[in-house]
Structures are given as C-alpha cells and as structure tokens.
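name: query_chain
kind: protein
chains: 1
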Amino acid sequence: MSAGALVVQPRLLTLEGGEGAGKTTVLRALRDALVQEGCDVVCTREPGGTPLAERIRGLLLDAGGEPVHAHTELLLMFAARTQHVQQVILPALARGAWVISDRFTDSSYAYQGAARGLDTGFIEALETTAVGISPGLTLLLDLGVASARARTRGRDLLEGGAPDRIERERDEFFERVREGFLARAAQFPGRIRVLDASLEADRVAEAAMAHLAAYRRGLA
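structure:
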C-alpha cells in the first residue's frame, strides 16, 4: 500500500499533538493493549529512538547556545528521523512487530511547516526521499494552548526540569502548531483520528484504544 511515493506501514502507529497533550499516557495504554493480545510491540519517540538520533535530539532541544535556523532545525529533525526509521522502525516491522512512535513526520509539517513557515513542498521532498514510509494510524491528541501550557508548567515543577528550546516558544507559535496538526487531520481523515485531550487521562486512553481496536478490525 502506498500514499503517493510513501509506503504505508499498517503496524506503525504514531501519536501526535502539542506539548503536554498526554501522548506518553496514551502510548502506554496502546502498548499494554497490544501486549495483552500477544503482540510484539516496540515503543519509541522522535526526535530520538537511536543513540545517534538521541544526540541530535539534545542539539535540537538545548535551550542554550547559538540560535537554530528553521531550516537547520528541519534538517536535523529529518536526519534523526532517517536514522530512527532505518535502525529501529523498519527492522521491527520486518520481524512482525507493532511500532508505536511518540511523534513522526506529521510533527515536522506542524512545527517546521505551519509554525516556522517553511515550504511544505520541501518537507514533502524530505519525507519522500529520506523517510519513505507513512503510519497506518495516527492519533492526534488535540489540546488548547492555555491548557497545554498549564500541564507543562506543572510537569516541570514536579520533575524539577526547565522548558527546552521549543517549549520556550511563545503561545502564538503553539497556536500555529495546533492549526497545522488539525490541517493535517483534515487532509488525511482516513489515517489521522483526532482525540479531545482535554478530557481525563483515562478517558483519552479509552478513546485511543477504541480507535486502535476499530483500526485492527479493518485490517482483518
């Protein structure tokens, strides 16, 4: 199966959304549901997922040092993603595992495309040449910026951390990110399902598992 020049991978599931949307909780719920059915499951994240890609993640999120140009950010994202796909995702899929990734290429369209204003045609070219695959199912956890900000502040206080370089962006930036994600969902309604992430975490997880169950029935 393909979407344009992209090969759709039915057992690749991706989670998308802005900062603080609760992707980690949903990822764990999906993982547990698949494991309970005897599936081999690989959970991973972007940027990152391999030792090299994690080092690139550190460069991308470091709040210190010189300013990062938007094109530099995009190219580093795709460098990490290419390594991630080649070293983790494709080998796992080849052996029959399900892969759940916290973020994938949709994030580049939202963050570097919609929010940074980079040409989507350039992003599409990178996606086609350097990634080559598309998820079978994407769950978009949609949350208003004000609510997301409150969650990330609470998380940072609890964990004793500080906002990373991207988390320090202004609210206007994250409004564009949210609009970018919703635009992707409207463009690909068959793949991207939107979940209301303002609900209680267990209700969001239940909705995610219902989407996964319906998706798997469609594959049978």
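note: The domain at 2-219 is CATH 3.40.50.300 (Rossmann fold).
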